[in-house]
Amino acid sequence: MGFANAFWSALQGEVSEKELRAYRGSGLQTQELNAALKDAGARDPLAAWQLPDAVRYALLFHWVADALLIVANHLLDADAEAHPPTRGFLPRLTFDQAKALYVQVPDHLRRGFEALANPLYAPDCALPIDLSPRLPGTESCPDPHLRGLMCGVEALEAHADLRLTTLKRDLGEAADTAGGDAARETLARLEQAHAAAAARMRWGRTQGDAALAEGSPQVRTNAVGSLWDALADLFLLGQMLAMPDLLPETGSQQPRPKRRGRHKGRQISRRGGDRWSVSDPAARRELEHSRFGESEINAFWQARQWRVSDREADTLAEIAWLRERQQVEPVGPWAIRPFGTVYRAVEPVYVLGHRVPRGHDFYYDLTVAGGRIVIGLPSFGSADAYLYNTEEGRALRLP
Predict the structure, then answer these.
(1) Angle 213-5-9 (CA atoms, 0-180°, nearest 5)?
(2) CA-CA distance, 34 to 129, in Å (whole number)?
């Protein structure tokens, strides 16, 4: 590109895409991972379902990396096609959005190769993975950016459709195989998820065409929202194709989280600090050895027969892992026994099959019947003091 074109791009507030070229080149690594997956037996979706978890983890991470590349590449290609004289330069919004997607690719490729290398592989991230981030300002994006989103969602939908078509064909050929009925039921649910994403894509495309023709800000906002929703749905669908156990429970719209490992339940010691192991540190400092605190914590564990179940131990470990990854942050102690920690989601997370939106508080409520997730709207009310365990006043006491 000549100096005049570069100067004109700078006047328009555009930035060089040079920094993004190395990320775009990681597409070669996705091809290498794909070849390694085929060597491991994952030549088609149905065969992949019969493979060990580690291989299916690799298949999932390949999909995630490939999908991120597809969307980001189409953003760049659409801008280059719309403005050939300024090829190599991008509007700031397009640059930032593409980079935000590209920078995630290396970690997911690493996870894919690690999974293939280790039969006992356990992922270091929560599953399923949400498509993010969607940067502020996309609602008023330039025309090429909107076209890039439209092309990206169509490419991703075609990719998912091909996998579903292959899966349907293979199931037809293997009609009498063991587990065929369960596989067909899974396929039906995957096709339902695909139909929902495709409907959103078509609506986004219709809105996008209208926005490009009319220039209506509201229509453009609607188009971008629908296209991102469709991209997010397809992003999840590809992961569920790799690991069908991420499919939501029947009647639920949210995918199930894939646990990174299993944790054994245990007995709680009736003396000492073990009784406060599920309590917020601030609550423990204030209540341990007090008449109220000791009475409440002992009554809590006595009602639970002094035990944490396998499922509860697993959930507590998952929340601790989310905190370690800084995907959630502690807010303060719950006002009622066992005075556990209330967390705030820094980004959307899944806990016990529930999706906690960004900025919402949640609490893992351990009761006699078991554990449940309570989600704020977006926060919980505050209490002036710790409360006895009554049906009234389930509230958060901020330290």
Answers:
(1) 60
(2) 19
